[in-house]
Model the fold of this input.
Amino acid sequence: MATKITKRTVDAAAPGDKDRFIWDIELRGFGLKVTPKGRKAFVLQYRLHGGVTRRYTIGTYGNPWTAETARTKAWELLGNVSKGRDPASAKKSEKQAKTVSELCDLYLADGCGAKKPSTIATDRGRIERHIKPLLGRKRAKDVTTADIRKFMADVASGKTAADVKTGKHGRARVSGGKGTATRTVGLLGSIFSFAVDSGLRSDNPVRGVKRFPDHRNERFLSPVELARLGDALAVAEREGRNKMAIDAIRMLVLTGCRKSEILTLQWSHVNFETGYLELPDSKTGQKRVPLGAPALELLASLPRLADNPFVFPGEKAGQHLVGLPRVWSAIRAKAGLQDVRLHDLRHSFASVGAGAGMGLAVVGKLLGHRDPKTTARYAHIADDPAKAAADRISISIARTLVSPNGSVGGGLGGGE
Done:
């Protein structure tokens, strides 16, 4: 059936036993589809270059689609067809456009490359706690630089802050702040770079967004504070607190290692002959940590369990120590160091070395920072300047940990 499609035509169109089409006599391909249930929709039938015929549904009759608005849209679509574009394919792509949430999942599955599992876990936390709640439903291709700026401001103001129960006894306290906002926007930059590489969008909306200065907390213990920490460790040991946890804290401060490196340290990683920890994996990959004399002495004093490979075993058979932050919280309170994190012990180790006049390259090597020029010197263990530096740093710290009353807080005995 062919007639001019107007409001009167549409209103008068009655359903039949099957889909019924009424075609416009003025605009070729423009029509009205009426289903057996009476649903009325405007359509456009067109032919692509090459002879392929397609049918495109403009929209259902009713606000905003009237006979005139649908006719105007049909003219626009036919203009695109004349330029070689396929409206049906474009509409399909639009429907299939990934949301930011879907893009994030794809990034975690395929875009993290050589990232360490711990880094991926951190990324996943930022995605689930900040990115998905604020941007997750938005289509990735529609995100603008303005959206990223607003996202950063919202995270900084604490809009995504939450206290979430993660298990029977666990809780995840999510805080905002400028530092979190800056680091999460940095992650978004990587995610959208992945989107560009994957052909999901043509540009990165994070580019050009000015972020807050990322002032990471780097707390250094002074010699007086190290002495207070030594006293607190000794007192905690005399009071019968978890000896393994106390020694793990001592090991952290004497080596500058990360918490995860010490907690997962196994006896097979300890080489007493060379005075090194041979870590098969760490945040920066395989790593060799030179040990000073006090750290070696502490390791030599620790008991070994036949059924547990870890230097600092936990209460469960075959597992490493857990709950160190809880013990640390009590000890730092006793030492009057409430603002000091376990990771700050690593910073303190580095600061003692820098304060002693050691070069930054040597200190960086001790901490396991990636630097090809310095890592090459590991081949000569006997002449390794990092080994000598580790010895001087840990001895200096150990001496400072000795309290004024003569008790050894440095962990090589803990008695009076």
In short: The radius of gyration is 33 Å.
